[in-house]
Specification:
By secondary structure, the chain is mainly alpha-helical. It has one domain (2-92). The protein contains four helices and two strands, in the order H-E-E-H-H-H. It has a two-stranded antiparallel sheet.
Length: 93
């Protein structure tokens, strides 16, 4: 885990911090990132948060498209079938 943090710091041209001591003084935001990424739990939490945000955005787009399809079908006087309900009804029989 530490080698990944060190590589990230070196490619960014910032200091490598070990046990809170840095060989040069990086910008505060970079310093904070390096320290936070040393904590594996923090990394997983940040990655999960990014994934959740991404999935939330994809879900919102899918819901919007589905609603647009329903609205268009209603304007064209087409029958709209709720597949979830239809499948539940079929499995109940």
């Amino acid at each position: 885990m530490y080698s990944m943090v060190a590589r990230t710091a070196m490619t960014a041209g910032t200091a490598i911090c070990t046990n809170g001591a840095c060989n040069t003084e990086p910008a505060p935001a970079t310093h904070k990132l390096i320290i936070e990424t040393k904590n594996p739990d923090k990394i997983w939490a940040m990655q999960a948060e990014e994934r959740n945000a991404s999935m939330g955005a994809m879900l919102a787009r899918a819901q919007s498209r589905a609603q647009q399809a329903v609205d268009t079908a209603n304007k064209l006087k087409l029958q709209v079938i709720d597949l979830t309900s239809a499948l539940e009804d079929e499995s109940a029989e």
